Amino acid sequence: MSRKGEQFAGLTVALVTPFKDGKVDEAALKKSVDFQIEAGTDVVSPVGTTGESPTLTHDEHERVIAIVCEHAAGRIKVMAGTGSNSTSECVRLTKYAKKSGATGALIVGPYYNKPTQEGFYQHFQAVAEACDLPIVLYNIPGRTAKNIEPETICRIAELPTVVAIKESTGLMDQASQVLSGSNLTLLSGDDSLTLPLMSLGGSGVVSVVGNIIPKDVKAMIAAWNKGDIKTAQAAHHKLFPLCRDLLGLSTNPIPIKAAMTALGRDAGPVRLPLTPLSESEMQKLRKSLTNHGLL
Does the record bear Nucleotide-binding in its keywords (predicted)? Predict the structure, then answer.
């Protein structure tokens, strides 16, 4: 089955937003884009969950999109986070991403206000009608407080510009329903579930761990796509402990920012209300990085 959104297949890295002296560290952000280009990453995704979008001002949010698009300069695709719990704000951000040169928009289900399923549909319909930038749905009910049900996703998928979904429910049955009921390209929103979802027909991942080991993640995806199941499984099991710690020690992106700092990358601190890892958590993280051969 041919799927919409194949341009977003493979490895997308959800970029952290580096901070310095309370502001976005623009130089470090550009270095992160270069790091991903050199690693062969397919797509970068700024200002998503990992990019701490909830604590960015509107001006900062737009500035991060602009910097990433400008610095990418066509060398790598950009899936800009433009979601909001306000439909009009989502439209504005999506139009801005298109104007900045983004390849697509990653749009999370509206959070906090808990729309009905009809509300979800009308939200995405309004954005799609206002701007023709390709849309990647982002369903993460653990953060938004409301699941976009598979039937609704398949309905939204009929909108021409909705081409893919970042699946972050952790539910294999939901992913199967979306894959069998639509022609969306499905991307894992959890690093530890990339290979399981690809076995169902998924096409890659929007990765957090890819901020530090993009080549490892890309190699696992490539092995699966070549039909080398044993190599892909071995890669999965090597990645799993690190994925578990980077997503399980504390709220994302606290651990990945700590890992980047430990590895000499300019990630800077997290913004309140997020707080740094405790000393015991940091020891566990260092052990995980050492076991993976990174320290």
Answer: no
